[in-house]
Amino acid sequence: MNTRNDVVIMTGEGMLALWSGLKSCLAPGDRVLSLVTGVFGDGIGDMAASLGCEVRKVTFAFNETIHEMDRVEAAVREFRPHMITAVHCETPSGTLNPIEGLGDLKRQYGVPLLYVDAVASLGGPPWIWTPGAWTCCWADPRNAFPRRRA
């Protein structure tokens, strides 16, 4: 993972980490900006809404990556979220989102939390861990590491 930050290991499927991350970082009424490029990004926004958070989604086509960073930046500036959420790899389409620029926006606008779903990608494609950019990253590396089947 190439990080010096604390790593917490949980036993269970990837959704355990995703839910626990939201529940431990958010309170009802918190503003969450969900960047949607597929079903999992859309679902994270819905999960935050079910916790009583005010959610705004910036949606791209489900076969596209996060682009039009000016559109994302405008949403951060106007909505002033407590958390930005994004999925690094949307499994159904296989698209990889450019997470690095989101860390820059987080710092620039003083957003407390950047939540990254890396369930399908940690241990797969190369990562750029920008110091101070990411607040929490949730993963289930069994999805990206090759497995030998009997």
Tell me the overall shape.
globular
- What is the arithmetic mean of pLDDT? 82
CATH-defined architecture = 3-Layer(aba) Sandwich
Largest beta sheet, briefly?
Answer: 5 strands, parallel
Q: What gap, in angstroms, lies between the N and C termini? A: 28 Å
Number of DSSP helices? Answer: 4
Structural class call reads: alpha/beta
Total count of domains: 1
Query: CATH topology, which one?
Result: Aspartate Aminotransferase, domain 2
Using the coordinates above, name the CATH class.
Alpha Beta
| β-sheet strand percentage | 15-25%
Please state the CA-atom Rg, rounded to the nearest Å: 15 Å
List the strand order in the largest sheet: 2-1-3-6-7
Number of DSSP strand runs: 7
Which parts are unreliable, with pLDDT below 50 for 5 consecutive residues or more?
A: 144-150
What attributes does this structure have?
150 residues; alpha/beta; Aspartate Aminotransferase, domain 2; five-stranded parallel sheet; 4 helices; globular; disordered C terminus
Characterise this structure.
This protein has 150 residues and is an alpha/beta fold. The chain has 4 helices and 7 strands. The chain has helices at residues 14-25, 39-50, 69-79, 100-109; strands spanning 31-36, 54-59, 83-87, 89-90, 95-96, 113-117, 136-138. Helix 3 runs parallel beside helix 4. The longest helix has 12 residues, at 14-25. The two termini are 28 Å apart. Mean pLDDT is 82; it is low at 144-150.
